[in-house]
Design goal:
Elements (H helix, E strand, L loop, with lengths): L6 E10 L5 E4 L6 E4 L7 H7 L7 E6 L13 E5 L13 E5 L6 E10 L2 E5 L9 E12 L2 H6 L11
Antiparallel strand pairs: 1-2, 1-3, 1-9, 4-9, 5-8, 6-7, 7-8
Length: 161
């Protein structure tokens, strides 16, 4: 069976950036399961999996626009260190922050600490990154009506109640 809209797809993957740095992998875990056409995975990977079947392997190279988006410079902020109440700040630490308008929470990653100024990046950590997915499709089946109604996969590798 080929991967088409509303098929449940299970796959193992390794995700590297363009320099070959390992970002994520399903090795040692259950295969990742999702429903095709439901925007559960990045659009570029979903598009490249269309038409594949169980047993297929592929290298999907996904540009930022089809992955986690381009880097938005307006989401990089420099704030005074004293806003953090004297805690020890290190690059890579993450904070949740609401916008001044009381809008939605964003996650900000510390990307630099210099004297009294902390640089925070509110972009997704993989924004601006070209994603290299090595994918091995392990299973393709039709989604059940219940799965489509709930919008997620039930059972192995999926959503557990």
């Amino acid at each position: 069976m080929q991967i088409t809209k509303n098929s449940v797809v299970s796959f193992h993957y390794t995700l590297n950036d363009a320099d070959g740095k390992l970002l994520d992998t399903s090795a040692g875990r259950d295969a990742f399961a999702y429903i095709q056409g439901q925007s559960m995975i990045v659009p570029g990977l979903e598009r490249q999996l269309e038409g594949k079947k169980a047993g297929d392997s592929l290298l999907a190279i996904v540009p930022p626009a089809e992955g986690y988006g381009e880097l938005d410079p307006s989401l990089v902020h420099k704030v005074p260190k004293d806003r953090f109440g004297g805690q020890n700040l290190e690059v890579g630490m993450q904070f949740q922050a609401g916008s001044e308008e009381g809008g939605e929470m964003g996650v900000f990653t510390v990307i630099g600490v210099e004297d009294d100024i902390v640089a925070l990046n509110g972009n997704h950590p993989l924004a601006g990154v070209t994603l290299h997915f090595n994918v091995e499709v392990t299973d393709v089946r039709e989604a059940t009506e219940e799965e489509l109604a709930h919008g997620h996969v039930h059972g192995e590798g999926g959503h557990h109640h």
